[in-house]
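Below is a filled-in request sheet from our internal design queue. Each sheet records the structural input a requester submitted and the sequence that came back. We keep these sheets so that new team members can see what a complete request looks like end to end.

REQUESTER: design group, bay 2
PRIORITY: normal
MODE: inverse folding
CHAIN LENGTH: 231
BACKBONE (tokenized):
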């Protein structure tokens, strides 16, 4: 095993979410989670006093998108092994089995080092979050030199904790239903929204074209797409 793999595994094993947001990811809309990622500094063994590194930031989770295995095969950036995995998924569940795709953006806000142990700092932050009644705040204990791995582990656990409620809400509105072409109803709604955004000048036509291609729907919408550019 490569050293990098060992370090990542170590970071995963030594990351713990000390406080999860009390609110799940929104099913319809963007969710902004403020986080405090606490680590012992990488030089901790070289100094006598306890110190804690505090990284503050915000993770924005976009509205979860209903996709299918066949849709994923047409996303850019996946290698041959990923495609083979998707072929296995399609053989087991079918090419049109609906699932959720979550998109995240991390916005770091600042870094500070305080002269207290990690437990003390976590306690103060917990009290602060309680006072502010912030339902979308999290405290994470991570590994300093691989803090981004620690953040990703938190995001994965946050997603897993929201998945069931998101699926239930989408299903109750019929958005997981698949039509004659193997397209989820939610995807049809998104395409309609993109047409409206392009027509109003709020969206680049290339985004609409990519979405149609990923669903292999461009022939169905071709005339309507080109009508957007006719005066």
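RETURNED SEQUENCE:
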């Amino acid at each position: 095993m490569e050293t990098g793999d060992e370090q990542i595994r170590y970071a995963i094993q030594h990351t713990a979410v000390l406080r999860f947001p009390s609110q799940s990811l929104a099913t319809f809309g963007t969710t902004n989670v403020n986080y405090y990622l606490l680590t012992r500094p990488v030089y901790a063994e070289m100094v006598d006093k306890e110190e804690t590194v505090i990284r503050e930031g915000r993770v924005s989770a976009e509205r979860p998108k209903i996709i299918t295995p066949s849709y994923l095969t047409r996303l850019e950036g996946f290698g041959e092994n990923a495609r083979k995995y998707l072929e296995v998924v399609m053989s087991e569940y079918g090419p049109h089995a609906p699932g959720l795709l979550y998109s995240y953006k991390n916005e770091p806000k600042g870094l500070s080092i305080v002269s207290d142990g990690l437990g003390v700092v976590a306690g103060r932050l917990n009290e602060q979050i309680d006072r502010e009644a912030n339902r979308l705040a999290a405290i994470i204990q991570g590994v300093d030199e691989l803090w981004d791995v620690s953040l990703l582990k938190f995001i994965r656990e946050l997603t897993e904790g929201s998945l069931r409620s998101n699926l239930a809400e989408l299903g109750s509105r019929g958005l997981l239903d698949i039509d004659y072409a193997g397209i989820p109803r939610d995807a049809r709604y998104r395409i309609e929204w993109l047409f409206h955004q392009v027509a109003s000048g709020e969206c680049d036509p290339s985004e609409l074209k990519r979405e149609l291609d990923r669903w292999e729907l461009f022939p169905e919408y071709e005339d309507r797409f080109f009508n957007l550019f006719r005066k």
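SHEET NOTES:
- The longest strand covers residues 104-114.
- The two ends are 61 Å apart (CA to CA).
FILED BY: M.R.
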